Amino acid sequence: MDPRPVDRPGDGPVDRRWRYRRSLASRVTLxxxxxxxxxxxxxxxxxxxxxxxxxxxxxxxxxxxxxxQAAQAPAITDQETGxxxxxxxxxxxxxxxxxxxxxxxxxxxxxxxxxxxxxxAEVEVARDEAGSSIRTVRxxxxxxxxxxVPYREGEALLVAQSLEGxxxxxxxxxxxxxxxxxxxxxxxGAAGWGVAANGLRPVxxxxxxxxxxxxxxxxxxxxxxxxDEIARLATAFNQTLAALAASRDRxxxxxxxxxxxxxxxLTSLRTNLDLLAQSDAASTASALPAAARAExxxxxxxxxxxxxxxIGDLVELARDEPLTHVIATVDLVEVLDNAVARVRRxxxxxxxxVWAQPWFVVGEQGALERAITNLLDNAAKWSPEGGTIRxxxxxxxxxxxxxxxxxxxADLPHVFERFWRSEExxxxxxxxxxxxxxxxxxxxxxxxxxxxxAPTGGARLxxxxxxxxxxxxxxxxxxxx
Length: 481
Description:
The protein is an alpha+beta fold and 481 residues long. It is built from ten helices and 14 strands. The strands form four sheets. Strands 4-3-7-6-5 form a five-stranded antiparallel sheet. It has a five-stranded mixed sheet with strand order 9-11-12-14-13, covered by helices on one side. A two-stranded antiparallel sheet has the order 1-2. Helix 2 (24-72) packs antiparallel against helix 4.
């Protein structure tokens, strides 16, 4: 048989944490009541013990004083009989008086009820082996406080007092403390519930507003009142709402812009394909000439390539998640060389001058190469025929200068926005996403980008990437046993 215990309903972690299924107000009330109840119990116990010890101490001092004084007082002579009356017989008002002898025998001078039974402690006082003794003796359910002091040689004076009165006082005190404690706990529970209900009212209001936002997707900020923890929670939630609203707006704008940008090449493609279809269906006399047909097919191919690039750019911009691709130490000079070679093939009429110092970056090589290629493509697009693109890489700062018309001051804040295109570039090919990808790649690699004017009058685009002039050391490989 399997000795392991069988899971039963109620044994799971949810059942073991039943307290977390209760409301916050009930938990606050329960904790307040428990705290007050424990405090009241400790206070009542301390008061009871203190009163009991004080009463016991006062009684012991009184009995010891009366017994000592009675034992030391001289005898009184009866004038009629001439016999001596011990002085201790005169103090027997509320106490019981007795005598203990050295042989262990004792006598009580009253006949009221059962006298206390004595023992070794009182015998030692009678034999002068102890200066005094005081202890509690129980007789048939009654308790007595007995004091023994030396009286004469071989004798000890006994003074005993019943503890019934003291016990009655302590019993009444215990009942009173119990009643007041119960009343205090009930009052604490009511006060805790009131405090929890009133104190959690802002939380309930905030919860209602958040539930309304979840139902209606209304991302308007919540009202913030005061400067307490609830206000901080509302402020933090407003920041979350603002980030969510901004993300939703970016998503909507991206979808709208993507639809607008895709509509133009799709319309052109449909028109060209219709022309080709009509030409194929027409007679030989009305068919398109071979040159016109080849030109139309080249236009279709170029539009397909433009759409492919646009869709790739959209996919790249839609990736808002952190860098999850292959991360490695990237030689930025090598990446720059690859990008320059690619741009030289695309724009043979523009020369590219490169001056670069070694720089190594930890990141994704493909994304960095695409960003640098976009910077060079942008410079090649605006450079005149026979112009020169100057590229420098110094201490992680990549600068690309072209000899084009430059960027107007009013356009500088919008250069890296998605789908933004200046008035001059509306008639030129492109989707307006290349520089946006540059900014996103730089941000994902903890860098930044900047646009300005080159000394030659053209545009200057700068991308800064953190790194080092030498590659970082590789971690030591583990030895195979």
